[in-house]
């Protein structure tokens, strides 16, 4: 499968930072090659997870002003490595990321102005090659080291059941701030709880459930037709939720996998509080993943 990553949001909640730098390039902690937490931009972590899931083509949706910076970040820079050969520990992560970049092809789509998550996806349609694809927002990530595994499960479920889409959802205390689904329980899939989605509402006043969608999906190309039809009828800001609802209303099938702590945690950096929480949590997770395990005591005979 291919993938689309959106890097074109307005970032108004993160001003003044986003006057000059994108929120998708705020740093979180991840595992470093030499052990211990290593700072990486959120978009870097997202691309790593997609590569781990087997993706080889990535469509990046960007704003016009960010084209040069984003291209540079996702381009191999041999000169950077050469300048730091005397400090190999400082470029160990760069070398590892370069190895990931060598396996990927990047395609760029431009969203001239913010007109919604769904509009950004429509603009990336050529990058998907007309086949199924992952969709991942660039300002959030699955922490815990199993993001690639979760993405592969989503792709396999979509293919096995011939679904129009697979959502990744999580239980939240206050679902009124999220896209909320209502679903029927189905047998677990690869260890993850599974739901057949019946409806989805964006930021409902009276939520039908506590299942909130993360910004990670696996879609069939039918999503594009749904989004285009919604756009034809209503040319205002377009959301992915609009396309999902259209698919459900016209006989499409959507399922959801439930993310729990055994597999990882969804964190977003779209707000100051979200970034603060994500940074602290990513540090704790990265430290614990590298902490030496205490040997179990040998039972007495």
What does this structure look like?
The chain has 301 residues and is an alpha/beta fold. The chain is 32% helix and 28% strand. It is built from 9 helices and 13 strands. It has a 5-stranded mixed β-barrel. Strands 2-3 form a two-stranded antiparallel ribbon. Strands 7-13 form a two-stranded antiparallel ribbon. Strand 2 and strand 3 form a beta hairpin. The longest helix is centred in the C-terminal third of the chain and has 19 residues.
Helix content: 25-40%
- CATH topology term: Spore Coat Polysaccharide Biosynthesis Protein SpsA, Chain A
* Spatial order of strands in the largest sheet: 8-11-9-10-12
Low-confidence stretches: 291-301
Class by SSE composition: alpha/beta
Q: Provide the number of structural domains.
A: 1
Beta-strand segment tally: 13
Report the CATH superfamily.
Spore Coat Polysaccharide Biosynthesis Protein SpsA, Chain A
Terminal Cα separation, in Å?
53 Å
Strand content: 25-35%
Query: What's the CATH class label?
Result: Alpha Beta
Radius of gyration: 20 Å
Major beta sheet, specifics?
5 strands, mixed, barrel
Total helical segments = 9
Mean pLDDT across all residues, rounded?
90
- What is the annotated CATH architecture? Alpha-Beta Complex
Overall form: globular
- What are the secondary-structure elements, in order, as H or E? EEEHEHHHEHEEHEEEEHHEEH
């Amino acid at each position: 499968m291919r993938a689309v990553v959106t890097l074109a949001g307005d970032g108004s909640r993160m001003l003044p930072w986003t006057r000059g730098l994108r929120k998708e390039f705020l740093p979180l902690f991840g595992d470093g090659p030499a052990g211990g937490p290593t700072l990486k931009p959120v978009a870097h972590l997202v691309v790593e997870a997609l590569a781990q899931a087997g993706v080889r083509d990535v469509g990046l949706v960007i704003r016009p002003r960010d084209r040069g910076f984003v291209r540079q970040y996702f381009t191999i820079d041999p000169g950077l490595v050469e300048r730091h050969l005397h400090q190999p520990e400082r470029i160990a992560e760069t070398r590892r990321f370069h190895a990931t970049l060598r396996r990927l092809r990047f395609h760029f789509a431009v969203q001239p102005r913010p007109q919604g998550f769904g509009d950004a996806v429509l603009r990336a349609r050529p990058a998907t090659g007309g086949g199924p694809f992952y969709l991942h927002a660039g300002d959030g990530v699955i922490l815990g080291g199993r993001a690639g595994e979760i993405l592969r499960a989503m792709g396999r479920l979509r293919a096995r059941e011939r679904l129009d889409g697979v959502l990744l959802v999580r239980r939240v205390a206050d679902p009124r701030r999220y896209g909320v689904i209502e679903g029927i329980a189905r047998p677990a899939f690869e260890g993850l709880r599974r739901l057949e989605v019946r409806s989805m509402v964006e930021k409902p006043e009276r939520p039908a459930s506590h299942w909130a969608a993360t910004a990670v999906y696996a879609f069939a190309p039918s999503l594009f037709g749904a989004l285009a039809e919604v756009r034809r009828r209503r040319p205002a800001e377009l959301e992915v939720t609009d396309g999902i609802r259209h698919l459900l209303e016209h006989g499409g099938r959507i399922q959801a996998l439930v993310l729990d702590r055994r597999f990882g945690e969804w964190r977003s950096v779209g707000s100051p509080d979200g970034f603060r929480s994500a940074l602290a949590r990513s540090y704790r997770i990265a430290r614990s993943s590298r902490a030496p395990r205490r040997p179990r005591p040998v039972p007495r005979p």
